[in-house]
Write a structure and sequence with these properties.
Length: about 290
């Protein structure tokens, strides 16, 4: 994934970017230019350019959905000649999803029914799986936490995550825009993911034990450590997709350092019991 989004769904531009942008008299050529600038930023990978171009394009609201969709339809999704192709599709599909869930879902489902490169397919699935109606929404430290409604509220997942976020230095959270809490499934081989540029974290919450089971604390320890690991990716500015060994070491080091500060005793117990044997993952695998 590619860009930083500071919203989940927008009732107004001022909600997203802190001030109303006057684009009421903009022309179609100006909108086309905004789309082109956003594409260029995605292809070059410049963080500042992506944020700037995204803000400008997002200001057009649903008017931008159609030209974005046209750009996506021009891309051959069956092959990836350059790594930037995946970034381009991911960025365009994500902003389309924020502008119009119906349009993005329709595009993705049609694309997935045709020949589609695995990396692009994974990106599209990851984009459309998150629909606001299926989540409980909470604002914490300027971040939107979206908890899947299938998770029993007695797990108090959002409350725990909120408390853990307060353990993290504010500067390390930076521009993290959203944090999804999803129900862990048997086919998952990850506990958490971090989406570069989008600055989105996903935690897979274990519901294997009943919320009242005393051993539930073991899973919470893992969830907390995973959160710190994914924040570590963000703090270190990691942008590579997949499992880069050096970046995983850096994220592990960040998580270990923070966890030791917050839970010195639990850290010793965790090492003795090897609680962190299953490593967090930074991205969803294609299914």
């Amino acid at each position: 994934m590619i860009l930083v989004l500071n919203f989940v769904e927008y009732p107004g531009i001022d909600t997203c970017y802190g001030g109303q942008l006057n684009i009421s008299h903009s022309t179609s050529s100006e909108l086309e230019a905004a789309v082109s600038q956003f594409k260029a930023a995605l292809l070059t990978g410049s963080y500042e350019d992506i944020v700037r171009a995204h803000k400008a394009l997002h200001a057009y609201g649903d008017r931008a959905a159609e030209p974005i969709l046209q750009e996506l339809n021009l891309i051959d999704l069956a092959k990836v000649d350059y790594p930037e192709t995946v970034s381009l599709v991911a960025g365009l599909a994500t902003i389309l999803h924020d502008l119009s869930e119906a349009a993005s879902v329709s595009f993705a489902e049609n694309a997935l029914n045709r020949p589609c490169h695995p990396a692009i397919a994974a990106s599209l699935r990851n984009t459309i799986r998150f629909r606001r109606s299926g989540y409980r929404e909470t604002q914490v430290l300027g971040m939107t936490i979206l908890e899947e409604k299938t998770i029993d509220e007695r797990y108090r997942a959002t409350a725990h995550v909120s408390r853990w976020l307060h353990n993290i230095p504010a500067d390390d959270l930076g521009d993290i825009s959203r944090l999804y809490i999803i129900s862990e499934q048997s086919h998952h081989d990850f506990r958490g993911t971090y989406q570069p540029y989008l600055a989105i974290i996903t935690l897979a919450w274990s519901t294997l034990l009943h919320p009242s089971n005393p051993l539930q604390w073991v899973f919470r320890v893992n969830h907390e450590a995973t959160l710190y690991h994914e924040v570590g990716h963000h703090r270190e500015g990691h942008t590579e997709y997949g499992q880069d060994p050096e970046q995983e070491k850096q994220a592990d080091a960040y998580a270990s350092r923070l966890f030791r500060q917050v839970h010195p005793v639990v850290t010793k117990i965790g090492r003795a019991l090897n609680l962190w044997r299953k490593k967090p993952r930074r991205r969803h695998k294609d299914k």
